[in-house]
Design a protein that fits this description.
The complex is a heterotrimer of chains A (290), B (409) and C (281). Chain A is mainly α. Chain A contains eleven helices and four strands. Chain A is globular and about 60 Å long. The chains are: A mainly alpha (290), B mainly alpha (409), C alpha/beta (281). Chains in contact: A-B, B-C. At the B-C interface, helix 7, helix 8, helix 9, helix 15 and helix 16 of B face helix 2, helix 3, helix 4, helix 5 and helix 6 of C.
Chain lengths: 290, 409, 281
């Protein structure tokens, strides 16, 4: 029983971690809290739903379509809404992000209705018996996928040319440009990677909860952002740790029969961490030059 | 404040406070004259409107729409204090509204028997009803302000996006608490998810008009004082403000708490106008709706806030057939305004009747440009101006670009 | 301005920089063994200075020598790793930037930091703010105390503008001012906080010779009319030599020379720091 709860926490935490990675990457590079990130997940889930239910496609193709759809949408959002505001005050671009999020939610609602849609199981992995506990195969897959995604992302950022460019742009956009880094394509690439992670999260989320709705991204996104901030925004291990903390605390609050309070607990946790350590658990302190 | 500069006694102040105006000097209205003009306007609006309501020339439905306009105008101008004047972005304004609304409604419902009132007589305008209304509204405002202190102190230590997310989190906590507090307490207080019902219709035209006018007056006087200047200074350059002796923590908290207080008052009006309080109405979406109103009107423009809150409240009522498209339209408008006119429709322009009257007194019309005082005062130095603009661009402030517009306006 | 001053420290005998007329007085600004490390890097080390109440002194040195860091230490932007700063004999340890200003230290910035969307007048009035006592409710309800204070504040601000010949710009937005006027306004805003010491960070940067001459006059005017001390960072040697009574030369965070402008000018270490060591062939 306990083991099941732990796995549930890991599963939920992994999804949060994947989404939080997307937030962290975008924030790291253009200092933008991408409010639309949660809605990219919603979009990905709807793509999967359309592919599976409306078009009756092969689940593997549906998964690829969902991830591809998220990548295209993420890059498109950056090009259309954020790129014109690169030099604008931070407040303007933040409000734009809220607008994009609002647009996606209400656009989908207008086209497909406000009610939740049922997503059939993409693959049935059955259950595994370990020490007398029943563990769901989906949960194990979720954890495994998250581990792989985090490792790949870390290697990408640390070892590749593009990763180096990303770090350079996040350090100092102007200097990176002078050093011959193509800033715009680097930012697009960052959005693409973050959105691909969102696409993976969308699939895993649909597998876990088997339903999609236009506003599903709001809470998911907000909590994942909480996770990213908790762990220290801009830090990959921070996002994973933050995601797991949020996931575990939700599962355990629910296990105590207090599930109606779980949102409040998550936000309270965030506030406490920020009061004690304003840059999050693994965040670097930022000082403004005088 | 003691005078400290060495002074000579025969200098003439530039500002002429008097009606006359000698040669070459600009005629200006005296302060009492300005206040009198505005007081007359407000009195006309408040009591004239009330007369029309009494005569039945404004229908019951129109009155309710007016009350809603009042609520949203109050929400918008109060958020504008923090977003427009202080330059911070909180996303939990609806949370303060709900606190104020619940507190005010519960207070009034519980206190009615003590005042010998019932739901009917609460709306009557009798003296005990007015007293209970005022006390209840203040109670709601103060509850919201206290919550503002609790939220503001940790939140305002953080910058930009962190402030946004932490206020969003607080608003969510407030919502969760409002839904679940009854089961935790063991008796009925907020009515849980289904909401608080049986709120008497105490809002009315007269109350709304007076409260909103007073609030706008208070914001105006606050901003045109040393407190307001300190708040604007923080927006423009926080580091310089500190170095100039502005206690930034204090003034940020002051602006935040004052904004929360007014949002609480708006919540109290809202409760009496709608008659039902449900936690679901005060989610993130409500906060965004208010933010859209502020941004659209122009951050830092009270006039803009009032106009956009009015338009965005009336339009959906007028265009009920297109209700489905309303949210999508909101979102698109928000994005387009940010990309093409980030300072909002009115920038930081503020309407002033006194200024218009002064222009007429000085025959200072747009078509005889030569008399325009501000233009001629600025030394024309293109190169230096370009340098100055460059400086302005590097500053991270809310509306570097708005400055030119407000000057021309 | 309700800044609680801490216990007054006993003044140690100060170095020889103070001009004769200030010798009897307590130095208005005194730094002893001041230093700060960033990570492992020592940005400023063993910085000592004593400023007479009406002294004009300068800190010079090559780029990256730590001059602005010294200003940031003196104004409590950074907490020093070592050493003390005293204003009028009161210790600045643990004070915030705001408290330091209230204790009598005001500054300008290397990259101009004005309140660009506020008028010239309002910029100055922000500086005066901490000397105004009108209460929140007095201001919001427009009680007599508000009017009285606003009038005094406006009068004083106009007076200040008049003294420095900026009266005609009172209602111009600070962001729209020409560059030289922006620099001047920053100084006026600092003066409006009624400081005992004014720190100027590269006040003549980007100015043409005529503007620099006017600035020199103005700095002297500030010293003579306002009876305060001025400490400045500047690269313009003509300006520094023409106006400063004492100079400290900073290189790699250390004071390498100190004295009158003439003494400093002929100091071989200073020449070395600026021009590099002459290679012996």
């Amino acid at each position: 029983m306990f083991l099941t709860q732990v796995l549930n926490g890991l599963q939920l935490g992994s999804i949060y971690a994947l989404v939080a990675l997307g937030y962290t990457m975008v924030y790291g590079i253009i200092l933008l809290l991408n409010f639309a990130h949660g809605d990219i997940i919603m979009f990905g889930s709807y793509v999967a739903w359309i592919a599976l239910v409306q078009l009756g496609l092969n689940p593997a193709i549906a998964v690829l379509l969902a991830i591809f759809g998220c990548v295209v949408l993420g890059v498109l959002i950056d090009k259309v809404a954020y790129a014109p505001l690169r030099e604008a005050p931070r407040l303007s671009i933040l409000i734009t992000a809220i607008g994009v999020s609002y647009l996606l939610e209400n656009g989908v609602q207008l086209l497909l209705g406000a009610d939740a849609k049922v997503v059939p199981s993409i693959i049935d992995l059955g259950t595994v018996q370990v020490f007398g506990s029943t563990l769901s195969g989906t949960a194990l897959l979720t954890v495994a996928v998250t581990i792989v995604a985090t490792v790949v992302l870390t290697l990408l950022v640390q070892k590749t040319r593009l990763g180096k460019a990303m770090r350079a742009v996040s350090e100092d956009m102007g200097a990176a440009r002078l050093m011959g880094v193509n800033v715009n394509s680097t930012i697009s690439f960052t959005f693409a990677v973050g959105s691909a992670l969102a696409g993976i999260a969308a699939i895993l989320y649909s597998m876990a909860y088997q339903q999609v709705s236009p506003t599903m991204g709001v809470m998911l996104g907000t909590k994942a952002f909480v996770a990213a901030v908790l762990g220290g925004i801009g830090s990959i291990p921070g996002a994973v740790i933050g995601g797991l903390i949020v996931g575990f605390s939700e599962v355990f609050v629910a296990a105590f029969g207090l599930s109606v309070w779980q949102d409040a607990v998550v936000f309270l946790l965030l506030i406490l961490v920020l009061v004690v350590k304003p840059t999050g658990l693994l965040g670097r302190p930022v000082t403004e030059k005088v | 404040m003691t005078k400290m500069y060495p002074r000579d006694n025969n200098h003439n102040p530039v500002i002429v406070t008097g009606f006359g105006g000698k040669d070459g000097q600009r005629r200006e209205l005296t302060m009492p004259a300005r206040y009198a003009i505005n007081a007359i306007l407000v009195a006309l609006f408040v009591f004239g409107g009330n007369f029309l309501v009494g005569e039945g020339l404004i229908s019951r439905y129109q009155t309710v729409v007016f009350e809603q306009i009042g609520v949203y105008v109050l929400m918008t101008v109060s958020l504008n204090i923090v977003t427009g004047y202080l330059g911070q972005l909180p996303l939990g304004h609806a949370g303060f509204m709900s606190i104020g609304g619940y507190a005010c409604a519960i207070f009034i419902i519980r206190m009615m028997p003590l005042f010998g009132l019932d739901a009917q007589s609460m709306a009557s305008g009798s003296t005990p009803a007015v007293i209970l209304f005022v006390v209840g509204l203040l109670f709601g405002g103060i509850c919201a302000a206290l919550m503002g202190v609790v939220i503001g102190i940790p939140a305002l230590r953080l910058r930009g996006d962190y402030l946004a997310i932490i206020t969003l989190g607080f608003a969510e906590i407030i919502r969760v608490v409002l839904v679940n507090i009854d089961s935790a307490l063991g008796f009925k207080l907020t009515g849980g998810a289904s909401g608080l019902t049986g709120i008497p219709a105490y809002t009315g035209y007269l109350n709304t008009a007076i409260v909103v006018s007073l609030a706008i007056f208070a914001i105006h006087t606050l901003m045109k004082s040393r407190h307001g200047r300190a708040i604007l200074a923080i927006r423009d350059n926080e580091i310089a403000a500190e170095a100039s002796g502005v206690n930034t923590t204090y003034y940020k908290t002051l602006a935040f708490v004052f904004s929360a207080f007014l949002a609480g008052i708006a919540g109290g009006l809202y409760a009496g106008c709608i008659g039902v309080m449900a936690p679901a109405k005060f989610g993130f979406m409500k906060s965004v709706e208010i933010l859209v109103m502020v941004v659209l009107g122009g951050m830092g423009s009270m006039f803009g806030s009032v106009v956009s809150a009015t338009v965005l409240t009336v339009l959906p009522e007028a265009l009920r057939a297109f209700a489905d498209y309303r949210m999508v339209a909101y979102a698109i408008v928000l994005i387009l305004v940010m990309i093409f006119r980030p300072e909002g429709l009115f920038g930081s322009y503020d309407f002033s009747l006194s200024r218009i009257i002064e222009r007429i007194m000085n025959k200072d019309f747009p078509w005889n440009k030569d008399d325009s005082d501000e233009q001629t005062d600025v030394p024309v130095n293109a190169k230096a101006d370009a340098q100055a603009n460059e400086q302005a661009d590097t500053q991270v402030d809310v509306q570097a670009e708005a400055s030119t517009d407000s000057k021309e306006a | 301005m309700a800044t609680k001053h801490t216990t007054k420290l006993i003044r140690q005998e100060s170095p020889n920089l103070i001009p004769e007329r200030d010798l009897g007085a307590i130095p208005v600004l005194q730094a002893e063994h001041l230093g700060i490390d960033f990570g492992g890097l020592t940005a400023v080390n063993d910085f000592n200075i004593a400023l007479g109440p009406t002294e004009i002194s300068g800190i010079i040195g090559p780029n990256g020598a730590g001059k602005t860091t010294v200003f940031n230490l003196l104004t409590c932007v950074y907490k020093p790793t070592r050493g003390t700063v005293m204003i009028d004999g009161y210790d600045l340890a643990g004070k915030s930037v705001v408290e330091a200003n209230h204790m009598g230290i005001a500054r300008t910035f290397q990259n101009i930091r004005l309140f660009n969307n506020m008028t010239v007048m309002e910029n100055i009035q922000v500086g005066q703010g901490s000397h105004m006592t009108s209460h929140f409710f007095e201001d919001v309800l427009r009680l007599p105390a508000h009017w009285k204070q606003e009038k005094e504040s406006a009068d004083n601000a106009h007076e200040l503008l008049r003294i420095f010949g900026m009266e005609n710009l009172a209602n111009t937005l600070a962001g729209n001012l020409p560059y030289g006027a922006q620099r001047k306004l920053e100084i006026l805003r600092a003066l409006a906080t009624q400081p005992k010491i004014l720190l100027l960070d590269e006040p003549a940067a980007g100015m043409n010779p005529a503007e620099t001459d006017e600035l020199m006059e103005n700095v002297l005017k500030i010293r003579d009319d306002f009876k305060i001390a001025v400490l400045l960072i500047e690269h313009d040697m003509k300006f520094v030599m023409g106006i400063c009574e004492g100079l400290a030369v900073l290189d790699h965070g250390n004071i390498i020379a100190k004295g009158t402008p003439e003494e400093v000018q002929n100091n071989p270490r200073v020449i070395e720091a600026y021009l590099g060591k002459q290679e012996v062939r």
